[in-house]
Structure formats: C-alpha cells, structure tokens
C-alpha cells in the first residue's frame, strides 16, 4: 500500500512579500521601481513601494515584515543619493535589533552615463544588506549588447551583475528611461519574488 505524500505546508503557499525601498530625484528611478514592482507582482507576490524620503512608521513596519527588500536609488557623484543615505543611516535601529536578519535583498540604480560608477551604488546596497545579515540576490542575467549581433534592446544591456543598472540621458524625463532597462528591472522583480517564494517554502519545510 502506497503511503500518501504529506500535504504541502500552508505556510509555503503564502505569497512572499516584497518591499521596494527607493528614492528618485527626477522620476527616472521611480520608473524602475514600478518595473520591479510589476515583475514581482507577476509572480503573485505582494509588493509595497516605499519612498524612503517620505517614509512613515507604517512603512517602516512594512519593511520589517517583508520577506525581501529591494533597494533603489539614482547614482549621484558615484554613490546613492543623499536621501537614500539618510534612510540607510536610519536603518541602524533595525541593525541594532537584527530586525532584517535573513531577509533577502537586491538593488537597482540609474545614472546619466553608461557606467557612471553605478557599480559603487550597487556595492553600497549590498554592504548595507550584509550589515543587516540579509542575503543578496544578484541580477542573474548574462550581459547583453556585447557583440556585433547584439542590440541595445537586450536585457542587461549595460552588463551589470550585482543588480540592475539603467542609463537615461540627462536631458530626458522619466519617459526617456530605456525600455531594455525597464525590462531588466522587471526581471529583477520576478527573480527576487521567485527566490523569496523558494526561501519561504524551504523555511516552512524545515520547520515542519
């Protein structure tokens, strides 16, 4: 007689919660944040957009209960914006209590140059996550637009691996954010949400 497999834990079926903590100086990074949101929501995740320069106590609580936090900021002068740095310093209260320990983390950024030292901003995000004991989720894409047969419309056209990097001409508004960069941000959102679901299911299985 075959023994039926145990029923899956109901906890594993609960959609993950993803929070996108971001700052946008001129609207370009908000476009990317929305793309990350759409990508994560496509997987069934519950997603919260949090503007860190307007954060409320209720939104701090959303970050505390999220399974994953995606950090986003423009790159100004080779690092995240001043508003994001203010938010990062304010997270020290969470650091002191280890409130974000073992959450997942990821990041995205935009600048006017193809490089613009965006890698430094992504590294800043990853170190911030490490200080909190979080687990960093990279972009998970090969680089695009790197051969004569490639295109600027490729995913990850700028060749970042640590997170999603975007470039927008400095004389264009938010509607000028490159479509490939938006699609790359959507990919990041889907990847983070999918990994959060796997992580939650694994924790539920271990606890069962």
TrEMBL record:
It comes from the Bacteria. Residues 18-163 form the Flavodoxin-like domain. InterPro entries: Flavodoxin/NO_synth, Flavoprotein-like_sf, FMN_Rdtase-like_dom. Transmembrane segments: none annotated. Pfam families: FMN_red. PROSITE patterns: FLAVODOXIN_LIKE (PS50902). PANTHER family: FLAVODOXIN-RELATED PROTEIN WRBA-RELATED, FLAVOPROTEIN-LIKE PROTEIN YCP4-RELATED. This is Flavodoxin family protein.
């Amino acid at each position: 007689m075959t023994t039926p497999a145990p029923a899956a834990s109901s906890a594993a079926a609960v959609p993950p919660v993803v929070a996108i903590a971001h700052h946008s100086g001129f609207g370009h990074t908000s476009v990317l944040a929305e793309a990350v949101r759409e990508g994560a929501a496509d997987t069934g995740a519950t997603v919260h957009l949090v503007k860190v320069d307007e954060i409320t106590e209720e939104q701090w609580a959303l970050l505390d209960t999220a399974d994953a936090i995606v950090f986003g900021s423009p790159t100004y002068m080779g690092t995240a914006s001043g508003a994001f740095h203010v938010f990062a310093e304010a997270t020290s209260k969470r650091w002191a209590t280890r409130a974000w320990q073992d959450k997942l983390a990821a990041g995205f950024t935009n600048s006017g140059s193809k490089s613009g030292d965006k890698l430094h901003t992504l590294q800043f995000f990853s170190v911030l996550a490490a200080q909190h004991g979080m687990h960093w989720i990279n972009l998970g894409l090969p680089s695009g637009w790197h051969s004569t047969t490639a295109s600027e419309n490729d995913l990850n056209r700028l060749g970042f691996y640590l997170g999603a990097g975007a470039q927008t001409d400095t004389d264009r508004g938010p509607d000028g954010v490159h479509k490939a960069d938006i699609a790359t941000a959507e990919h990041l959102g889907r990847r983070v949400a999918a990994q959060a679901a796997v992580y939650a299911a694994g924790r539920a299985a271990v606890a069962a």
